[in-house]
Design brief:
This protein has 598 residues and is an alpha/beta fold. It has helices at residues 11-17, 71-81, 135-146, 154-169, 177-183, 192-201, 213-220, 230-235, 242-252, 262-271, 275-279, 292-302, 312-316, 331-336, 355-358, 361-364, 396-399, 401-419, 432-436, 438-450, 466-473, 495-498, 504-512, 515-520, 528-536, 538-551, 576-597; strands at residues 2-6, 21-25, 120-123, 205-208, 284-287, 320-323, 340-342, 367-373, 423-427, 452-457, 477-480, 500-501. A 5-stranded parallel β-sheet has the order 3-4-5-6-7. A 5-stranded parallel β-sheet has the order 9-8-10-11-12, sandwiched between helices.
């Protein structure tokens, strides 16, 4: 397109605010992707594919059968596409083979919390041999899942704790024994209708496939070779190209794009054959950071825009997707519809502020404020509904993230200079040397947060960053430059009571304005509100710290035992796992209400 931009008024304030009039004139047809955009002002309908598009994918075959097909016809179709001698779900190792390590009793020995309010959890028994996973790889997977989470595994830690924490906080549910044996058949038999009805009628049950995509791919296919770039390996990030993946999602629903690895895709195809999935896909839980991609894939398939073979990730889009941040413009509506649940990134326990070790809170907080960030960032969201596959952030704090970070550094320096209060701002570049010493860098950041009263958290390439949850653990009051509506667990955490919001436009204007103009207009440092609170409203600051000290437990992944994380009195405390279970139960209730109304 030809683009014309016209600026009006004061150039400094206009540029700072990012305000301009933009006219786009298309010559001929709009770009091809425009047909995928939602031109109706970004309105989001709680997406439920029509009955004819309820796709079932069978392992080893690209045959698909709409859910309305009769069982007899389905059995005939499956018989024609069946592989003779296909192994059953429970394959015993042959004599002389090494027995795999027993699957750890995830959540065993812990008392289920009241997070689910009567909702139970069905955890699938994964047929590792049928999925072509060796006993050694299976043992390696469970070792990664049940072992300690590396301190830098913010994304990988979220995947891990979805698998190990949900069984802790939701009591188990099992189908009748005879049905349980049948439910693990590789392909449904004539009793499939009866099995599906049992799963469908059991309304207060969530379903979990206990496979973390990152850990499974690492254990099976990347045990002896790097899995992604160095920073992806350090953080447990799936090596997904965000730019190419969203283009492929709109092009063919990810039919030819592997987001994870072939082993995880085989596991998903196996899941789609199970009676529980055929009966209630909307109650299945997946930990998947790029939740916008399965959602797009499902919509593209449901519109009939994809030829066979159908993409495996379109089916995943029917479930409840647990992510730290959905990066599509309709994310908030998807949350309201129960399609997406936001959860915190993993933060290591050495960020926990412990008064027994650090001293009383007031005495330990020797600095007014701190901030830490990386210098080079850019918007990595897709908020433009008219051009849905281009980088664009609606929120100005994310759209101008690099300038915002410079403004934060400048404002903190000025605040420290004029008020003689201690402030700290650190930057960490994404270099090989930095990632080689990543654990030491994270620990040094923990010490900064623990001695700071306020933690200014500028946006990164998106709204959510691990720094939020690390600051919360340190009882460092978060100062947000993006709205708190992006934050997870609204059912458990009152973000307005434990944080401060500063309009990023004020910081941008402060950064752009010359010093002479600041004096003439009496322009105030936007971060001076922290000093004002400390001097004029100390009781309010102490109240926020007290609330934050309790709220942090809802945002940290742990086993519920407070004494394992600090030296205070032993007591049972909330956890991110319990808060996640509560959010999932609410999302499942929303999805079931949609199913009933349709």
């Amino acid at each position: 397109p030809y683009v014309a931009r016209a600026h009006h008024g004061d150039p400094h304030s206009v540029l700072a605010a990012g305000l301009y009039v933009e006219a786009r004139v298309y010559i001929g047809c709009p770009p091809r992707w425009s047909r995928h955009g939602n031109r109706s002002a970004g309105r989001y309908t709680c997406f439920r594919p029509p009955k004819r598009h309820r796709i079932i994918v069978y392992p080893g075959s690209e045959v698909m059968r709409p859910a309305g097909t009769s069982q007899a016809a389905g059995a005939r179709d499956e018989a024609r596409g069946a592989t003779p001698g296909a192994p059953s779900a429970h394959v015993q190792p042959s004599a002389g083979t090494t027995q795999p390590a027993a699957q750890p009793p995830v959540g065993a020995g812990t008392r289920p919390s009241d997070a689910g309010s009567g909702t139970r959890l069905y955890t699938y028994d994964v047929p590792f041999r049928e999925l072509q996973i060796s006993p050694k790889a299976e043992a390696r997977y469970w070792s990664l899942i049940s072992g300690p989470t590396p301190s830098s595994f913010d994304e990988g830690g979220l995947y891990q704790h979805v698998v190990i924490d949900l069984p802790r906080h939701l009591p188990p549910w099992r189908p009748p024994p005879q049905m349980e044996r049948q439910s693990h058949l590789a392909r449904p038999d004539e009793s499939g209708a009866a099995q599906e009805e049992v799963f469908r009628s059991t309304k207060e049950v969530l379903f979990l496939l206990p496979l973390s995509p990152y850990h499974l791919c690492k254990a099976v296919e990347y045990a002896e070779r790097p899995y992604g770039a160095i920073w992806m390996q350090k953080k447990g990030v799936l090596p997904i190209s965000m730019a190419w993946s969203i283009k492929d999602a709109y092009k063919d629903g990810l039919a030819k794009h592997i987001l994870t690895c072939p082993t995880y895709e085989r596991a998903l195809r196996w899941l789609y054959t199970q009676p529980g999935w055929r009966a209630a896909p909307e109650r299945h839980v997946f930990g998947f950071i790029m939740s916008h991609l399965p959602r797009i894939s499902l919509e593209v398939v449901a519109r009939g825009g994809v030829a066979q073979p159908w993409p495996v990730y379109a089916e995943m889009g029917k479930g409840i997707l647990v992510t730290a941040e959905d990066r599509r413009g309709d994310w908030d509506a998807a949350i309201e519809c129960g399609h997406v649940v936001l959860a915190p990134y993993f933060s290591p326990d050495f960020f926990m502020f412990d008064e027994a070790q650090s001293g009383p809170l007031i005495a330990a907080k020797t600095e007014l404020a701190s901030s830490s960030s990386a210098p080079g960032v850019a918007c990595h969201r897709f908020d433009d509904t008219g051009r849905p596959n281009r980088w664009y952030c609606t929120d100005v704090g994310m759209r101008k993230a690099r300038t915002i970070r410079r403004a934060v550094s400048k404002a903190l320096d000025e605040l420290s200079l004029k008020s003689h209060l201690n402030t700290t701002h650190t930057e960490t570049a994404r270099t090989r040397q930095a990632y080689a010493n990543l654990d030491a860098l994270i620990r040094s950041k923990a010490e900064i947060y623990k001695r700071s009263t306020f933690c200014v958290i500028p946006p990164g390439d998106s709204a959510i960053t691990t720094r939020i949850f690390s600051a919360v653990a340190s009882v460092c009051i978060p100062v947000f430059l993006v709205p708190t509506r992006f934050m997870p667990f609204p059912l458990s955490v009152d973000w307005a009571a434990i944080s401060i919001y500063i309009d990023p436009l004020k910081l941008l204007k402060f950064e752009m304005a010359p010093d002479a103009k600041k004096a003439s207009l009496n322009m105030r440092n936007p971060l001076a509100i922290m000093q004002q609170l400390m001097e004029k409203e100390p009781a309010r600051v102490r109240a926020m710290q007290a609330k934050l000290s309790e709220a942090r437990w809802h945002l940290l992944y742990h086993d519920g035992n407070a004494s394992a994380h600090y030296t205070g009195p032993a007591r049972t405390v909330p956890s991110a796992g319990a808060a996640l279970a509560r959010e999932l139960v609410a999302a499942a209730a929303t999805r079931q209400a949609q199913e009933a109304s349709s």
